[in-house]
Amino acid sequence: MPPPFVRAVAFGLYQDRMKAAIHAFKYDRMHPAARELGRMLAQAIAQLAGEAPTEMLVIPVPLHRSKHAERGFNQARALAESALGFLRKSHPQWRLTLGSAALLRLRPTASQAGLTSRQRRLNVRGAFTVPDRAAVDAKNILLVDDILTTGATARAAAQALVKAGAASVWVATLARARRVNEFYRGADFQEEKNELAGVGANAAAGSADSSDHSSQDQPSF
User: What is the pLDDT of residues 10-31, one digit of tens each?
Assistant: First the structure.
């Protein structure tokens, strides 16, 4: 069955320096990295220019309130806010509005670590809801998160949005896993090459030294 979103784009692969930078941002709370990572996310979103609607509601994938309390912030929202700042300058014709409260995570979900694709889908099935259908009805949605792996979370979130009346859902992430289901038309990405140098060598190196993050090494998507 095709995914309930039109296309998914990402800046780069979830590996090496990109992986280290995301870890530093999420788990070591290197908040200054949000600006540079947001710039990369903006570049990924720019791939949709000329194809996606020019007016979209940007929805960061929400955390459950317990996870938000534990982490102290939602990395998807921080990335979205930063990316929108860049896009307002690079693509002024776009009308992108942040809608952080438009999607709600109903329950905490278990870590996706070690789960099969089917188990991941079951883990997030029914995990999202739209508290106010009028907020998304007939709107084109840009769903944002840090990482896309199997697409289970993206699928579950998009299904909730479409069920609530969204006209279309597009997905943009900072990184994606190397293997993405081939029918995700938009598992497009840009090679990050040397772009990550600007994130901060210390942050990347510090996170890379602790590569055994079995419970943390879990993309939201």
Answer: 999 999 999 999 989 988 878 8
CATH no., domain 8-209: 3.40.50.2020
Say what the pTM is: 0.80
**pLDDT under 50: residue ranges of the chain:** 180-198, 200-220
* Interatomic CA distance for residues 168 and 158, integer angstroms: 9
Rounded to 10 degrees, the C-alpha dihedral 14/92/199/215 comes to: -40
Provide the CA 202 distance to its chain's centre, in angstroms: 24
Alpha helices by DSSP H, the chain: 16-27, 33-45, 65-71, 75-90, 117-124, 152-163, 201-209
Whether 121 and 155 have beta carbons less than 8 Å apart is answered as yes
**How are beta strands 8-13 and 168-176 bridged, if at all?**
parallel
How many C-beta atoms lie closer than 10 Å to residue 117's C-beta? 13
Closest CA to 220 of 169, 173, 184: 173
Query: 3-state DSSP call for residue 134?
Result: helix
- Interval 169-195: pLDDT, tens: 999 999 998 754 433 444 444 444 444
Q: What are phi and psi of 69, to 5 degrees?
A: -65, -35
